[in-house]
Design goal:
Largest sheet: none
Number of strands: 0
Order of helices and strands: HHHHH
Distance between the termini: 63 Å
Structural class: mainly alpha
Length: 132
């Protein structure tokens, strides 16, 4: 059995990691030099949710899966089916409807993805025009 201290560290690591990744996915396109990396992280998120989701369920994330396993080892029985719902509840104490959180998550994700894709395509088009 892993040391509880290590498990608590892993638990907090995943909370911070997810928050940073989510914020980067949502806002990373704002900083021009981060845009390519932002598109990559958004694309990997989409692959996880929609491709791995075929086998593991829509919205699947291996990091979330590992975090849930860590929390179960710590004795937590989290009742959220949505990781974003769990994060909101853990960090603010606000218990929004899971359906509201899920719909909002998808809308925000696709908005960020479209914006990031727009900037990537715009950069590519502008660089082609400057070569001609």
């Amino acid at each position: 059995m892993m040391n509880k201290l290590i498990l608590h560290f892993i638990d907090y690591f995943f909370i911070v990691f997810h928050i940073v990744l989510i914020l980067f996915n949502v806002f990373g396109w704002i900083v021009p030099r981060w845009r390519f990396t932002n598109l990559i992280t958004l694309s990997l998120t989409a692959l996880s949710w929609f491709v791995l989701g075929i086998w593991y369920g829509f919205g699947y994330c291996p990091f979330t899966d590992w975090h849930w396993k860590t929390r179960r080892l710590l004795g937590y029985s989290d009742e959220s089916n949505s990781y974003i719902h769990f994060l909101i509840l853990q960090t603010t104490g606000i218990n929004f409807s899971e359906d509201l959180v899920d719909v909002s998550t998808v809308l925000v994700f696709f908005t960020a993805f479209i914006i990031s894709l727009y900037f990537a395509l715009r950069k590519r088009i502008l660089s082609r025009k400057s070569k001609n």
